[in-house]
Each structure stands twice: as C-alpha cells, then as structure tokens.
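Chain A, query sequence.
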Amino acid sequence: MKRNVSLEEISDGKLYDANDLVKADCGGCAGCSACCHGMGNSIILDPMDVVRLAEGTGKTAEGLLAEGYLELNVVDGIILPNLKMTGTAEACAFLSPEGRCSIHPFRPGICRLFPLGRYYEKNTFRYFLQTHECPKSNRTKIRVRRWIDTPELQKYETYISDWHYFLEDVQGCLEQMEDETEVKNVNLYLLKLFYLKPYSGMSDFYQVFYDRLKQVREVLGA
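Chain A, predicted structure.
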C-alpha cells in the first residue's frame, strides 16, 4: 500500500539496516494493544504471511477467509488479503479477549516490523522508525534483525523486495488493460496462485514462490 507522505512527516528522519539499533522495543507491549485496533485493511499480507498463518493455525487460506480472520480488498488495483478487524472495537480477529496476540509466534511481517516500516527505493528497501504510530513511551533500543525475528533474514528481505516490485509491475500491466474482465481474471489468477494454492510448507517456501513468480512473469511479461 502506497503512502502519499514524506519520510520526514512520519519518521525520525533516519534509515536503518538489519544490523542497526533502533528504539522499537515495546517491552512486550504489556497492557497495550493499540496497534491491533482500528487498522482497517492496512495489514496487508504477502504469500509467506499466509503460509505462516496456515501452518500456525492449522487452517487453509480458504478457511482463514471463510472464518473471518482474513478478508480481501483491492490495493492499488490488485486484490490482496489483509487481517480483518472485527466488532465495535475494530480489533484484529486474532486478538484474544485479554488483549494479547494469539498468533504472535507466526504473526505477519507488518506486525513483526511495527513500529518500523519499509522505505523502498532502487529495487530494494531499508527500514524507518514510525514516530507517531505507537503510543508506548520509553521504548528501548534493539537490533532490527532481532526485532523482526525472522529466520534467514537476508533471504527474507530479498523475497520481500522482489514481491513488492513485482506487485508494482503487475499494477502497471493492469493499468494498461482496458477490459475489466481481463483485469478481474488476472487478479483471480494471482490470488489463487500465490495465496490459495497450497505450499508444501515453510521448509521450501522460497523455491515454490520463485517458481510461481517466474511462471507469472512469463505469462504477463511483468
């Protein structure tokens, strides 16, 4: 999801790499679940997020959608899944009655990042610290890679970058299509291939993902 704001408006003005220290540690978020409420459709999921959730919950991607944990929305012209907010409090569907994350060990990448964000440029990205999003005071410094808590981080970062720029290419292709039916069919094709078609698991996720990415690029020329 693109944000039409300057980096200076939303951050401390610095960019960080995985080995940098940043004031992001919220001390376990004790007594606070502000970032799990009122997020609308902004917690967009990439394919690995859905695989993690499926493995962690024991549900299929279709099951997570059918049971109201996830929903589909159009983001920059592309149909993508996101965490669903529920009830009058607009709470994440995975938030427990005690205000704790019930999927913390296999939470999505955006949740792992928060209050960090990603700043994309030159076919890669760096991290930035969002200064107005988290109400927790007295955050302590932590190394970015430890905060994100993801195995094989370099491989993961490459995947995230490739997925982001692939979506930009797809958006460009869709904008050139004049037939709404064709746009819909491409969207459904991508949704089924990257999200609904099962992966064998996290053990070989990257291999399967890149095989599918190659397939789509050959079909769409994206």
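The chain has a mean pLDDT of 92. The radius of gyration is 18 Å.
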